[in-house]
Amino acid sequence: MVGGGRDAFIGAVHRKAMALDGQIELVAGALSSEPGKARASGQDLGLADDRNHGSWQELLADEQRRPPGERIDFVSIVTPNHVHYEVAAAFVEAGFHVVCDKPLVHDSTQAEALVKLVRKGGTVFGVTYNYTGYPMVREARHLVRTGVLGEVRKVTVEYNQGWLATAVEEQGNKQAGWRLDPARSGSAGTMGDIGSHAENLAATVTGLSLESICADLTAFGKGRQLDDDGHLLLRYSNGARGVIIASQVAAGVENDLRLQVSGTLGTITWRQEEPNQLVHSPIDGPRRILTRGSPWLCESARLAGRLPAGHPEAFIEAFANVYLGVAADIRAHLAGLKADPLAADYPRIEDGARGVRFIEKVVESALSERKWTAFT
Amino acid sequence: MVGGGRDAFIGAVHRKAMALDGQIELVAGALSSEPGKARASGQDLGLADDRNHGSWQELLADEQRRPPGERIDFVSIVTPNHVHYEVAAAFVEAGFHVVCDKPLVHDSTQAEALVKLVRKGGTVFGVTYNYTGYPMVREARHLVRTGVLGEVRKVTVEYNQGWLATAVEEQGNKQAGWRLDPARSGSAGTMGDIGSHAENLAATVTGLSLESICADLTAFGKGRQLDDDGHLLLRYSNGARGVIIASQVAAGVENDLRLQVSGTLGTITWRQEEPNQLVHSPIDGPRRILTRGSPWLCESARLAGRLPAGHPEAFIEAFANVYLGVAADIRAHLAGLKADPLAADYPRIEDGARGVRFIEKVVESALSERKWTAFT
Amino acid sequence: MVGGGRDAFIGAVHRKAMALDGQIELVAGALSSEPGKARASGQDLGLADDRNHGSWQELLADEQRRPPGERIDFVSIVTPNHVHYEVAAAFVEAGFHVVCDKPLVHDSTQAEALVKLVRKGGTVFGVTYNYTGYPMVREARHLVRTGVLGEVRKVTVEYNQGWLATAVEEQGNKQAGWRLDPARSGSAGTMGDIGSHAENLAATVTGLSLESICADLTAFGKGRQLDDDGHLLLRYSNGARGVIIASQVAAGVENDLRLQVSGTLGTITWRQEEPNQLVHSPIDGPRRILTRGSPWLCESARLAGRLPAGHPEAFIEAFANVYLGVAADIRAHLAGLKADPLAADYPRIEDGARGVRFIEKVVESALSERKWTAFT
Amino acid sequence: MVGGGRDAFIGAVHRKAMALDGQIELVAGALSSEPGKARASGQDLGLADDRNHGSWQELLADEQRRPPGERIDFVSIVTPNHVHYEVAAAFVEAGFHVVCDKPLVHDSTQAEALVKLVRKGGTVFGVTYNYTGYPMVREARHLVRTGVLGEVRKVTVEYNQGWLATAVEEQGNKQAGWRLDPARSGSAGTMGDIGSHAENLAATVTGLSLESICADLTAFGKGRQLDDDGHLLLRYSNGARGVIIASQVAAGVENDLRLQVSGTLGTITWRQEEPNQLVHSPIDGPRRILTRGSPWLCESARLAGRLPAGHPEAFIEAFANVYLGVAADIRAHLAGLKADPLAADYPRIEDGARGVRFIEKVVESALSERKWTAFT
Fold first, then answer.
1. Strand C287-291, strand A287-291: pairing
2. Which partner for C133 in B41, C55, C321, D337 could form a disulfide, CB atoms 3.0-4.6 Å apart?
3. What φ, ψ does residue D64 adopt, rounded to 5°?
4. Is B7 on the interface with A (CB under 8 A)?
5. What is the CATH number for C170?
6. Residue C182 structural domain
7. Residue C344 belongs to domain with CATH number
């Protein structure tokens, strides 16, 4: 693992997700950009001294020195965004499989370079768009892709949070600090952090190609250089229309990610805060509440669950599903086989690259003011 | 009553709303544009023969002939949209109070002419934006207007229905027929029918001034001349941002109107399909579920309810609240008094006129294609 | 109408329910046991002086004097419980149709006498167990009665309210005053007031015969002579088991009536506070949310609704359905016909009498302490 | 670990719960009563050969042979019920800490013997009543214990499942097989399996002492020797009343465990299928939705969570909290310290013993038929 040391929020989540199913063991790390903190964090986690490094460069060098059978199987990159590119590129070039947090990198140039490297090396590269790891999102994808909704006409993703409603970045909140800093976060704030999840969720479930975007981004917090709120109109190449609403200033709201997709034959709705159910409203019968763990779900949704229906699974389990997908792909790779697509079901480097381009285009659209009609 | 004869959906709703509280009696009518049907409809409802007319012109003439004490107190206009203007204008000019369905008229010219007539005559004129008659919408208005939410930053209104998902207008659905016909419905379809409710709800609750609009309207149904789906980005003069989503092709969805308003201090959410509760998420404490009938609601919300908490009220009761507001204003007018604003709480001619302008501007914006940034 | 004068809660509800659909007009009354208050209340409601009486005896005498065509069609009795019997008996004996609030009378002797009178006179007699007027309760009945749930095994009714959690009867709450007074309320408090609704709901939906009862009634409020809380175990003659929980001291709870019925093939759940939906969990597929106004409901549920799905109806509309059922039966009676059972769908005198017996047996069971096994 | 081999449901859950937080490592096992299956299961999980045993006796003997620093810190017993006693007693006597699944043992004699052994040895003994590991159950306990609800009057626990609605025990469902077999499951079926969870939940949250029980147990499935459904009336020593409803034949229902507690000042409601929220209805203000991860929760509830509000946690995380509590106690024990009660928060041997007594008394009460009053 690179990044994720003491005080880091998401690093600990990655570790729990890896540990949950007993398939992945954390054996080496460079857990902070600050060597002392990196090593102290590694000691907290019980890393052996010779695999607890002060920098990712040392980690990489050490792993390369080891005989193949004693090396890590993959590296997980959970640093702030601006570090992703160089770490990922270096590990991919050295032939290691990689899991990287989203958004993948800062711009399309980096993203395309990384895609090329991965394709050249043929290594496994997963991006932790964790929300698409939820079993009921997989069921949603199944319903859309198999035509149960008919032709898709309308996609709405709302992703509201309230944690940036006040100036927490001035009060020592580290995550707010880097998320709102263009140098570390990239060209977008909220749109990069959670708008990118919204894009990935819509794309994963519907498989539609985005054709054009009309964006309104706002920084409500005083002095913020990056957006903390945004609204997007979307057009898809098949004629479908979409809306993305993303906000981190929806005061009092927790982590309210919702997806609604309407097709000619029905509508599905999923809410991350109640992730074990998917609502399906067909045009010709009563609403159906599909629940995780039910025998009538698609195989992909069933495989993504661990417990019977009514025994809820949640965020960490969905996150772990991304790791399980990567692990299945790496195992197949090690065995010289093609992975079973049902098992190796995780967001790929191409999803990450598309997400970066999405952020760029949203920012470009937001800068254009021609779109407005005065209401007088 | 003008309009609302046999087979008309909304006319029957108006009559139940009028009857509910025992304050309004239907005594005269011209219930259809077709004289025979008008009279047959009046007979169904037990109208006296001498007050059951074949046309609104006859109704008006008859009422004008009667001595003041025997006249109707007001007329309720529940025809398709294209008839509103001439009927309303004639009754207002003749000095009658009026209740008129929304959208008020076809264009701003008519709307402004009507506003002038009403102001000149000093008569009462209510527009049945019925959703703002819900007690919990009044509580929402109270929370926003008294600063409980702080400064408003974000307004989202979603209004999805599915009844136009298939070509019902070709299968004898009369309401679909006129709603999708520009001659009878005006320049917008879904945006006129339910987008106008969304606009009124946002404006009533927040009191914010709309500054500019960016609209994407779509007609998904083959051969439809008017939109059956639309997405709007909104900017308000105080810097707040908004989104309106309205659709009548969200297959399988019933009447899913939702409002969410976020301010610096919290967020409120209201859903029409569960109208007895308002969710308030303050920034500094747990979510609160405010319920109709509770003693801690504002006076306006309490006055708008009839039953104790937990004994739900719904659509007809909210609709009746609009009529109660108009009735209170007419009673005050008859008594030569200024009405108590708490009692005479209903959408006015100005709300109706603003709604017409809103539709015009949405259509204007939708025609501009400059707004899009290609996603390639 | 007898009873329901100024300050009475339920009388006003009855009047709105009668008025809603334009089929019933209130023309005469004896609205209080106190003559002055009775007449003042009648004036508030616009009753003609000659039909606004100081006592129910005067009302009855006056109606009997009138020629048949000028008489009331039926009387609605909305007094406190202890008055029901003598008023109902007198009107039935005089040949009038009756609607009477629940619980019907104080004891089985009265109930049986009344049943005999009604059967002898052949008049219409409805009891306002209003909750069974909800369309989705009718759908629940349909699902159970047509075998969709298989054989019923388990019935749970919970009816919790919190309005008696404090000593409101000592603070001028008139309804609490008579509800907790054995002289006016009968042998049971909460069990008579809302336990009787629970019994009626279970019986109406399932049609099962109760075989035996084991009851625990409690008066939590200091000095109360009647129960304000109760728990019942039930056994039905087909082997099914049941539980009724009823409380008026569930502090902070509004009017939380729930029904759950499980059979061999599935389970249905209905909540009065969200009355427009019925949840059906079949054993072999996803949960279904059946909603009022949907075309796939049974005819009885469809007839009980006024508005399309998603336009909620609620308490008053359900109450009005009881009146519509009575009205249909009276109209058939006046026409000398047998009423269409789909239209004349309302709780009968026999339901009322069974409810009285239920209360008696619950109280009898509660007095037996033999049932308890010490936990030591 | 003892038990939990291939095909066992709950063993795998225990392992995920142990692994989640990186504090517990599975190093040895006797994973089945069948030696071959035991070892094969251990191989699946990567146990070293010398710690992968064919019987629990071998496991115990091997651990006792090892020097103290190389021994297991505790054993987790996840076998069917009838094996619990001898395994637990042997490990406790040998000085090992123990985690044991519920219900603890078959009867009070065994339970008391085990309590004595644990007290004598001073070892740590946790019972996996996993539902009380949910953060919001801890918040519920806090609200009740600190008087926010006032004096408790009423406790309702409903625990409905549908997985035994059909004769799955005849179709190869192993869990159903032993759960319904008195030899392996004890004197109760559903009441032992999930009724015991209900008892523990009520006792943990309220701290009330049960005084007496009145039970109705039923075996709906043909030929079943143990109950698959039960209803209990409860009386507590402070005068509070309770109801427990438990069923495994509620066809179509998943794992619907609900708790409702009413006191003089309000009511709380918690549902296991939506475990991240606790509804608190105070008597004097709007309902509050308390959510896991919120800063205003009690310290115990905050410590039991891993993620911010809105990032749901669920069943496995709650289960892991029981293990974290045991681990904290063992760590304190190893360090010779008294554990911090906030950290060492888990169900103890005494909770397990009380649960066994509860099952005995319920069965005793159910056998008495004196309790019923005929309804004729």
1. antiparallel
2. C321
3. -65, -30
4. no
5. 3.30.360.10
6. 136-309+355-364
7. 3.40.50.720
Confidence bin at B8 (pLDDT 50/70/90): confident
A167, A301: one domain: yes
The beta-carbon neighbor of A245 closest among B239, B243, B365 is: B243
Q: How far apart are CA A128 and CA A78, in angstroms?
A: 10
Smallest Cα distance from C156 to chain D, Å: 9
Residues paired with residue A364 on neighbouring β-strands, in sequence order:
none
D338-355 pLDDT, tens digit each: 999 999 999 999 999 999
A237 inside domain: yes
Predicted local distance difference test score (pLDDT) of residue D9: 86
pTM for the full predicted model: 0.97
Calpha distance A73→A68 (Å, rounded)? 9
Quick check: C47 pLDDT over 80? yes
Pairing of strands D241-247, D255-263: unpaired
In this complex, do D357 and C375 lie within 8 Å of one another by their Cβ atoms? yes
Per-residue confidence band for C214, with pLDDT thresholds at 50, 70 and 90: very high
A214 touches chain B (CB under 8 A): yes
Does D164 share its domain with D213?
yes
Which chains reach chain A with 3 or more Cβ–Cβ distances below 8 angstroms? B, C, D
User: What does the pLDDT read at residue D7?
Assistant: 83
Considering the domain architecture, whether residues C166 and C274 belong to the same structural domain is answered as yes
Verify that A95 and A180 share a domain, yes or no: no
Domain match, D171 and D302 both: yes
For chain A, residues with pLDDT lower than 70 are none
Instruction: Give yes or no for residue C376 having a pLDDT over 80.
Output: no
D204 and D333 together in one domain: no
Residue D229 within a domain: yes
Is residue D151 situated within a structural domain? yes
Contact state of C293 with B12 under an 8 Å Cβ cutoff = no
CA of B16, closest CA in chain C: separation in Å? 5
In this complex, which of A286, A291, A294 lies closest to C288 when CB atoms are compared? A286
One domain, residues D30 and D153: no
pLDDT of residue C57: 98
Are C373 and D215 within 8 A, CB to CB?
yes
Nearest to A289 among C286, C291, C294 (CB): C286
In terms of Cβ atoms closer than 10 Å to its own Cβ (0-12, 13-18, 19+), residue B82 is middle
In this structure, are residues D231 and C231 in contact, taking their beta carbons and an 8 Å threshold? no
Q: Do D291 and B287 touch (CB under 8 A)?
A: yes
Rounded percentage of chain B residues whose pLDDT exceeds 70: 100
Number of domains in chain D: 2
Is residue C372 pLDDT above 80, yes or no? yes
State whether residue C225 is helix, strand or coil: coil
Q: What confidence tens digit (pLDDT) does each residue in D61-113 have?
A: 999 999 989 999 999 999 999 999 999 999 999 999 999 999 999 999 999 99
| Per-residue confidence band for C7, with pLDDT thresholds at 50, 70 and 90 | confident
- Is the pLDDT at D23 greater than 90? The verdict is yes
Residues D78 and D3: beta-carbon distance below 8 Å: yes
Residue A149 lies in a domain: yes
Of A26, A45, A309, the CB nearest to D254: A309
Of B278, B284, B289, B292, which to mutate for an interface test with D (greatest number of D Cβ within 10 Å)?
B289
Q: Provide the pairing of β-strand B277-282 with B266-271.
A: antiparallel
Q: Is the peptide bond before A68 cis (omega within 30 degrees of 0)?
A: no
Q: Where are the alpha helices (DSSP H) in chain B?
A: 9-20, 35-44, 56-65, 81-93, 108-121, 135-145, 174-179, 182-185, 190, 196-206, 299-303, 315-334, 349-367
A230-239 pLDDT, tens digit each: 999 999 999 9
Provide the pLDDT for residue B375.
84
A-chain residues near C302 (CB < 8 A):
none
Interface contact D300, partner C, CB < 8 A: no
For the residues C320-342, what does the mean pLDDT come to?
97
Q: Closest chain B residue to D284 measured between Cα atoms? A: B296
Instruction: Mark whether C205 and C107 lie in a shared domain.
Output: no
